[in-house]
Amino acid sequence: MPLFPFDNSYARDLPGFYVPWKPATVPQPRLLYLNLPLADELGLDGVALQAEAAAVFSGNSVPEGAQPIAQAYAGHQFGGFSPQLGDGRALLLGEVIDRQGRRRDIAFKGSGRTPFSRGGDGKAAVGPMLREVLVGEAMHALGIATTRALAVAATGETVMRELPLPGAVLTRVAASHLRVGTFQFYAARGELDRVRQLVDYAVQRHDPALAAAPDRALGLLRAVAARQAGLIAQWMNVGFIHGVMNTDNMTLSGETIDYGPCAFMEAYHPEAVFSSIDHGGRYAYANQPHIARWNLARLAETLLPLMAELHGEGDPAMQRAVDEAMAVIDGFPALYEAQLLAGQRAKLGLAAAGSTDDTADAALAADWLALLQQQAVDFTLGWRRLADAAAGDDAALRALFAEPAALQPWLARWRERCAQDAARGGPDSAGRAQAMRRASPWLIPRNHQVEAALTAASNNDDPGPFNRLLQALQRPFDEDPALADYAQPAPAEVTAGYQTYCGT
Ligand code: AMP
Ligand code: MG
């Protein structure tokens, strides 16, 4: 039996959308990480994989049935359009159907130069690839849609960055690698038929219910908007900052992709930004929903000619398509706000919408966040200790605030709102606290812990801290005194100077 039962629809259905290519061979392949639970989810034989892991996951031995290809895509990067990006250091090996019948891409990152590499070396370093493992697996455990790491192999090469670093190849699993930028690549070249092919392919893969609909381009836009609204709301409710929401890093599937300069916020501040190159704060925490909408507008632009075809010819037909697209784009904030509020209600321990007042509940959440901001309270612990307060113990929550007295009026308001739920047959305080602890994690990958784990693994060849942190992050909602270190914020001076880097 082959290691991967590949069925490669992208290579088969979309000739001309990629360049067939081979991964570079590397001098000293060594397996650093293999995600056995994910391998099992994919229906792969973990034992067989392990036996060949170093050769396969380094790119030295292309597995049977793989058809490695470099995909073409474009993208707006920090607002400026690059007509040709593409897989400059990545290759899609192929697709497998997982145990639940879902088609999943298996792709390399860091597997050498391709025709899309421009000035780059096509390589990746151990630290950033292990970072992608940690953050992606943490996101998955938090219940957030994400691409995931199947494996990381060290290559034995030195990769030149600001410093020489050990090289690595990541194997990434994704619902697909279709990006807004994939559509932009063909739209920018005026290749309408190729945009049409992409729409059909994307619909087949992500929204099969739309396959027969004449207006499936519009339907796809709506579906992507809905997925992204849900995704970004989840990011916001765990304090995740992606850091580089370029259109080539926004998926059609609604999965988080490309863990480059991302970070989780500690002290709450809506303008938080960590990326060393994001000087204007374009991708700051609070800007993420606005950027998602902006990116959706770029996707919409690529679809307009197809949408207009349904309405005849000329300006009136185009105007109708523009109106349809604008309705989706303008509707995005409301979609997002609804998802955000649903998540905030769960974190506040409040019943879902229905008989409740959206405006009042949104204000309750906003005023809570304002308190966290005013007193620079840790976002994760603030929410988590609110669950203790729901159970009747305010002490740990108050301890997070320099001036706990300022919290009192808000707590009283919140308790009144909780009492309304209880009067309507909602949970008692213990039930509420328990539900809140499923909505607000105790553990996130804290930046200083991630850096410590990566430094040990990359510089000292010590996988211990990485393995322990990864293990802890598998169960982010369960408090475990033995893991208390991981729940602590970094010292303020560390956070103040914390920067993350792109393209590493
Ligand atoms: P990213 O910032 O990782 O989303 O990458 C943006 C673009 O730069 C993509 O086209 C990547 O393939 C390309 N790229 C990033 N790093 C490298 C590298 N080391 N070598 C070649 N291409 C790269
Ligand atoms: Mg990218």
Structure commentary:
By secondary structure, the protein is an alpha+beta fold. It folds into two domains: 9-177, no CATH class; 189-446 and 489-504, no CATH class. It is built from 18 helices and twelve strands. The strands form four sheets. Strands 2, 6, 7, 8, 9 and 10 form a six-stranded antiparallel β-sheet that branches. A hairpin with a 3-residue loop joins strand 9 and strand 10 (164-174). Helix 11 runs antiparallel to helix 14 (429-439). Magnesium ion is lined by residues 248-249, 258.
Mean pLDDT: 96
How many helical elements? 18
Instruction: Return residue spans where pLDDT drops below 50 for at least 5 consecutive residues.
Output: none
Count up the domains: 2
Give the terminus-to-terminus CA distance: 36 Å
Largest sheet: 6 strands, antiparallel
- Number of β-strand runs: 12
Our estimate of the beta-strand percent is 5-15%
Radius of gyration: 23 Å
Computed structural class: alpha+beta
Bound molecules: adenosine monophosphate, magnesium ion
The rough form would be described as globular
Helix content: 40-55%
Order of helices and strands: HEEHHEEEEEEHEEHHHEEHHHHHHHHHHH
Oligomer: single chain
